[in-house]
Structures are given as structure tokens and as C-alpha cells.
Amino acid sequence: MHSPESRTENTIDVGLEHRLTALSAEHDPACRILQASAASEYHALCPEAVKSIRIGFPADEHDLEALHQIRLDCSGPDFQTEKGTPYLKPLDESALLEKLPTSLVLYHRDDPIGTLYFTSLEQHESTGLIGGFAVAPGHRNLRFGRTLLHACLEKMKSLGFQRAVSITAAPAVKKLYASCGSIDENGEFDDLLETSRHRFYPEETGDVLLYVFEISEK
Predict the structure, then answer these.
(1) What mean pLDDT comes out for the span 199-216?
(2) Do residues 5 and 56 touch, judged by C-beta distance below 8 A?
(3) What torsion, rounded to 10 degrees, do the Cα atoms 184, 67, 146, 164 define?
(4) Per residue in 148-183, pLDDT tens?
């Protein structure tokens, strides 16, 4: 697989006539998925709600504080299990810093509002793990999360990945993942799933699911 490319930015502008324009480095696949999905995902949004959206990759260090705050905002009581376990795996700033080279950032009006990262799974050929999926609470239910996920899958595909997996217990994220991928039914990633379940209470582990995305088919 190829190394992560130099930073590219993909911008979608939603104007008064719902015109969508994508600006990116030439042939950037992340731009293509944004452009393709934008018409169906953003045409119904009020233009006052979405002025400018762009995806940045890789994440910059100057965004680190904002990304850390997004993660904190997505770890409060509204984003936890009934027993108080955060859906989002806790990471301190030093750990988050290590993720920046493979992190995507979703910007709205130049402010970071969402992020995720991916890593290679050495024990599973051509497969990457998506983690840290977070969209700021004030920007949910606007399909920003779907756009971020699609951009990540396209970026991973451009780097040579054929599959991606991601683990979550969050109901809203499960709904998104189910619409883009499928639950691991054959147990291929049971070791990874069991490791992720360790931070949850025993009675919560059944809610923690692993989803598989077949990137090569996209």
C-alpha cells in the first residue's frame, strides 16, 4: 500500500441555488466521492445551514486542540452507555497527535466539526481499521458523518486498502455503518472485536459490533 499522500483539501459549497463545487488536488478520489454523494445528501438542506464544507487530509497539528475538544464533546452523558461507558474510546492529546498522519478532518466554515482516523491491520491483509469517528454535537443529523465516512473509505481505497472495519456501540453510528457496510458474520475479526469490548461492562458487550466495508467494490 502507498504512503499517505500530501495534504489535500476538498471543498463543497452549497449556494442559494444548491450549487455544489468540489475543489481538490487533481484526481483526488476523496473529492470524487464527495462530489458524487453531495447532490443526493445536501440538496434538501437549507443553504443557510451549510455554507462551506471541506475535508482535510492529513490533519494538521494546529487542529489538535479543536479535535481533542470535539472528542470531549462527544464523550459526555449523551454519548455514553446507560452505565456511563463512552462510545468513543478515550485518547489523550499525545495519543491523538500520533493519529494525525492518517486522520481526516471535516471543516465547516473553516472550523473543525468532525474527525476520524484509520490504521493498517497487519494481521489482515489490505484491511484498515477506522476509529475515532466523531462529529460535533451541534452538527449532527446533517449527513456530515456520512460524508466524512465516505471520504475516508475513498482515501483508503486510493492508498491500496481493499477493506475497512470499524467497531462501535453507538446507536447512531451503527445506523450509518449498516447503510454503508455489514456486520462481520463469519467471525474473521473476532479477536479485534473482543479486544475492543474489554472497556465495556460485561452486560454491554453485546451492543459492541464490528462492521466491514468492502472498499474494492466502491
Answers:
(1) 96
(2) no
(3) -30
(4) 999 999 999 999 999 999 999 999 999 999 999 999
Question: In the chain, where are the structural domains located?
Answer: 8-217
What single letter denotes the amino acid at residue 184?
D
Is the Cβ–Cβ distance between 116 and 149 less than 8 Å?
yes
Which three three-digit cell numbers place residue 212? 466491514
Architecture of domain 8-217: 3-Layer(aba) Sandwich (3.40)
* Sole residue written with cell 474473521: 188
**What one-letter code names the amino acid at 15?**
G
- C-alpha 107/C-alpha 175 separation (Å) is 23
Residue 182 in grid coordinates: 455489514
Distance (Å, rounded) from C-alpha 169 to C-alpha 157? Answer: 25
Q: Which residue has the cell 476509529?
A: 131
Contact by Cβ (8 Å): 8, 28: yes
